[in-house]
Design brief:
The protein is an alpha+beta fold and 300 residues long. Strand 3 and strand 4 form a beta hairpin. The longest helix is centred in the first third of the chain and has 26 residues. The N and C termini lie far apart (91 Å).
């Protein structure tokens, strides 16, 4: 006979609401107001989790392991990692921590930064094995020690600074500016763009030239002539803009469909995953592939 006493019946407590992010299928079945409420709910949960993590770190120090290299100083020509222990503050980003390390511990620590608002794209680092913007990446969301390195697949100039000349050359090679021959007749009349077309190119205009996508691309790492996802995205931005002439669009397509253009992309989505502005780079590359094929189709 069992000696276990039977527990008195109590009202069952309601199960806590699931904090899992809804799937695309679930989101597609919701109306727009429902989507917004659900999105706010999960954003609030994420913010509470981050605040809790910050509370746990409050008063502690952050352990940074920062890549160091200086080809012009004897004794620093061999790459190494330096350790810094930085006091944590609520809302601290990787850039904040690196700036503190430079200002308080080693003034020779070199890196780029400017706006600190994820707009200039100058502080792209390789943080804990992933391309990230230093000013956008919260320390509380990272495992320690926080390992900060320069962008891979690019020549290191000093410490966290890489040579961006090749990246800029690739960006300029797609002629990233409007080329319109047929201007409006009226002197003060503007070139009009439909809302639908603006929505089509809107995401591509968000590129901040940080180079994170190029650094993450295995094809770019092995093919120095490959245009790269950022340059191709810039070509997409103008090729898909209805305000340019058809002849100019064909000219742009000829640029990106070259041997080292869109056809070198192997749709690994690495560029899309690391883009700090959430640009669907791989989708834009695939759409330019389709446009190039359609341009070359002839019916007679």
């Amino acid at each position: 006979m069992s000696t276990q006493q039977q527990e008195p019946e109590t009202d069952a407590e309601p199960e806590p609401e699931s904090q899992e992010t809804p799937t695309d299928q679930e989101m597609s079945g919701l109306s727009s107001p429902q989507q917004k409420r659900l999105q706010r709910k999960h954003e609030g949960a994420a913010e509470r989790e981050r605040a809790a993590a910050e509370d746990d770190l409050e008063g502690d120090t952050v352990h940074l392991k920062v890549f160091r290299f200086d080809p012009e100083v004897e004794g620093k020509q061999e790459p190494r990692f330096d350790d810094f222990h930085v006091p944590f503050e609520r809302g601290m980003t990787v850039l904040d921590a690196v700036i503190y390390a430079r200002d308080e511990f080693d003034s020779s620590l070199t890196f780029r930064h400017s706006c600190r608002q994820a707009i200039c794209g100058s502080d792209a680092f390789f943080v804990n094995g992933r391309q990230r913007l230093g000013c956008k990446t919260q320390i509380s969301e990272l495992d320690q020690p926080v390992r900060v390195e320069p962008l891979p697949h690019q020549e290191v100039v000093k410490d966290l600074v890489v040579d961006m000349d090749h990246f800029y050359d690739q960006m300029h090679s797609v002629e990233p500016y409007f080329q319109q021959e047929d201007l409006p007749d009226g002197e003060l009349e503007e070139q009009r763009q439909t809302r639908e077309n603006r929505e089509k190119v809107k995401m591509s205009t968000r590129c901040i030239w940080c180079g994170a996508c190029m650094s993450s691309c295995n094809i770019a790492a092995g093919d120095n002539d490959y245009l790269g996802p950022a340059a191709i995205n810039k070509a997409y931005r103008f090729a898909m803009d209805e305000r340019e002439d058809e002849e100019i669009k064909e000219h742009r397509l000829r640029i990106v469909e070259q041997e080292h253009g869109v056809w070198r992309c192997q749709t690994q989505f690495s560029c899309t995953e690391v883009c700090p502005k959430d640009i669907p780079l791989t989708e834009h590359i695939q759409e330019l592939k389709r446009e190039a094929v359609k341009k070359n189709l002839k019916f007679w």
